[in-house]
Amino acid sequence: MKKFFSIFAFVAMLCVPFSFVSCGDDDPVVLIPQPEQKEIYTLSYNMQDPGKNTLSTVHEFIIEKMGKSVEAKGQGLTWNLYVSSKEQGDAIFKGLSKYEEELNAMLKADGTGYFEFVISFHGNAVYKYTYNAADSASFAGIYTYTEKDGAVWTLTLTDESAGKAGFKVGSFEIPYDVQGVKAGQYEGEYSCRGSVVTFDSNQNAENGPVAHIVAGFGLATEEGIPMGVTINGKTVLNRADFQKK
Predict the structure, then answer these.
(1) Dihedral sign, CA of 199, 202, 203, 204?
(2) What is the pLDDT of residues 52-99, one digit of tens each?
(3) Rg of the chain's alpha carbons, rounded to an integer?
(4) Distance in angstroms (rounded) separating the CA atoms of residues 71 and 45
(5) In angstroms, rounded to a whole number, what is the distance separating the alpha carbons of residues 193 and 5?
(6) 160: burial class by Cβ within 10 Å (0-12, 13-18, 19+)?
(7) Rounded to whole angstroms, how far apart are CA atoms 15 and 34?
(8) Residue-wise DSSP of 192-231
(9) pLDDT of residue 223
(10) Burial class of 34 by CB neighbour count within 10 A (0 to 12, 13 to 18, 19+)
(11) What backbone torsions phi and psi does residue 149 show, to the nearest 5 degrees?
């Protein structure tokens, strides 16, 4: 019986997993280095009326100026920028301001209307660059669209400042009651991004501004300047050609 239990114990030992612990002249343990922790910034682009190579030209330019300490990953209009520390990142990205004149000249030569990029950290802008060809242009004038029955819609744009950066005074005349809005002239303000002008009345209706107009001056033809007109949140004119008086 003793012999039987000895054999059983031996077999049981063979079935238990185990490992040897070395205590001799083994090679020292090599620690695998952990990847360096990076701070992540975001780079986003916004443009209207871009030139043929605007985005790629500007992107290559600013990546070069940032230097090799910044790793950029992304595509199109949105990128992540990786740097070793926030202090380093803030210094690099704020330093891009010294290239603004060069960027302005580059975009003007490329025929760009409006171009903007923002570098932010956790949603807070660190550096913002804006180029707007409209800053040196005037869209002042009176523009009208006449319906077949003779009703005339009139958009008036001036060069008078509306009291805040990038906005000027304008007005819009509605020829008849529409969408719950009474006929009449409504004062407002407009802004320009490249050749795109956007007007909003100061007066609001139930669904937003009484009048909202988007005018594509860059798409002007002999027939006029195409504009979209929204009254009280409802499109009433779509690509109507307004003529300058």
Answers:
(1) positive
(2) 889 999 999 999 999 999 999 999 999 999 999 999 999 999 999 999
(3) 33
(4) 17
(5) 93
(6) exposed
(7) 38
(8) EETTEEEEEESSEETTEESEEEEEEGGG-BTTBEEEEEEE
(9) 95
(10) exposed
(11) -85, 5
